[in-house]
Amino acid sequence: MSTDLRDSRSRAASTPSGPSAAAAGPPAPGPRAVAELHDLVIDWFDENARDLPWRAPDAGAWSVMVSEFMLQQTPVSRVLPVHQEWLARWPRPADLAQESPGEAVRAWGRLGYPRRALRLHAAATAIAQRHGGEVPREHDELLALPGVGEYTAAAVASFAYGRRHVVLDTNVRRVFARLVSGTAYPPNATTAAERRTAGGLLPADEATAARWAAATMELGALVCAARSPACGSCPVAARCAWRLAGSPAHDGPPRRGQTYAGTDRQVRGRLLAVLRASSDPVPQAVLDGVWHEPVQRARALDGLVADGLVEPLADGLYRLPA
After folding, report:
1. Who contacts 198 (Cβ-Cβ below 8 Å, separation ≥6)?
2. DSSP secondary structure, 265-311, as one string
3. Quick check: 90 and 63 in contact, CB under 8 A?
4. Which of these ranges, 89-93, 121-125, 258-262, 301-305, has the smallest mean pLDDT?
5. CA 134, 135, 140, 145: dihedral to nearest 10 degrees?
6. Is the pLDDT of residue 276 over 60?
7. 240 with 178: CB under 8 angstroms?
8. Closest Cα partner for 304 from 321, 281, 285?
9. Which of 194, 210, 61 is nearest to 137 (CA)?
10. Per-residue pLDDT tens for 149-197?
């Protein structure tokens, strides 16, 4: 076990407890321990990283951006075929921008959360209009694009352009919660303490920082999983505060799984499936046949219209947005 990490835990044990201490978060590991973590995790990544199309040397920033939009709340296995279809049809942002938003929703298929398709279309349009059709390199320019938040801007800058940014998705937050904080799961929302921890672990060198961002994300996806972590395969298991503490159970707010069957999300999905399958406007009577409960069906359809995913026409017809 690294002396620096052990000393960090000793300092944590002697630090006064209370609200101010909790807000500050755990002490960061020392420089030598951090350098060791970089080497161990990046070496593991070099040996175990999945061969994903958006990681290919010639993938390009647009491929990375499309993947980041699609991977939000959707597993890689479902994203892969749709990502391939999108890049074949729209190899550049300008190609997507020339299509209607409805075509983006249609091509989104069953990835779920289809508003992401509208946001990606809006981002592509802005890229075509403001940046000459090239995905911008700078974090602030990425952040100014429609539908791009802090995480996506940092991820695209890091993964596409090798820039140095803190990239905190659910997988990375879980790795840092266990490795440094000694807790099974991170808080429900990203905290300032988590950002300080991530910033303290971020390599100073840009190329190494970008590699570290990808490596910690992959470690969380493949090894430090939410429900069944494979600690025996973890390159930093010997330094993991959670494992060294005996892998204590989660003692925070209950972690609720997302339900789907019978929800408005399911009804919205069925309505969109009918609209995606038709090149012509769809009559209300056809949409009425997708769900047995009229109040819920009407609420779901109204929600799709309000979100800009469905466009109502005259005579009770509906279509994807033009």
Report:
1. 166, 168, 172, 176
2. HHHHHHHHHHHHH-SS-EEHHHHHTT-S-HHHHHHHHHHHHHTTS-E
3. no
4. 258-262
5. 100
6. yes
7. yes
8. 321
9. 61
10. 999 999 999 999 999 999 999 999 999 999 999 999 999 999 999 999 9
Give the global pTM: 0.87
Active site residues: 68
303 Cβ contact list (under 8 Å, min separation 6):
264, 268
Classify residue 165 as exposed, middle or buried by CB count within 10 Å of its CB (0-12, 13-18, 19+): buried
Q: Treating both helix axes as pointing N-terminal to C-terminal, what angle do 264-277 and 294-306 enclose, rounded to 10 degrees?
A: 70
DSSP assignment of 252-270 equals SS--PPPP-TTSHHHHHHH
- How buried is residue 58: exposed, middle or buried, by Cβ count under 10 Å (0-12/13-18/19+)? exposed
Distance between CA atoms of residues 110 and 79, nearest Å: 10
Closest C-alpha to 240, from 201, 200, 182, 184: 182
* Alpha-carbon gap, residue 201 to 207, rounded angstroms: 14
Rounded Cα distance, 139 and 315, in Å: 46
pLDDT tens-digit profile of 188-234? 999 999 999 999 999 999 999 999 999 999 999 999 999 999 999 99
Query: Any idea which residue has 């800009």 for tokens?
Result: 308
In this structure, the number of other CB atoms found within 10 A of the CB of residue 123 comes to 23
CA distances from 69 to 44, 66, 276 (A): 26, 5, 20
Nearest to 82 by CA among 110, 54, 56, 60: 110
- Two tokens at 237? 């298991």
Count CB atoms within 10 A of the CB of residue 12: 16
Q: Does residue 94 sit in helix, strand or coil? A: helix
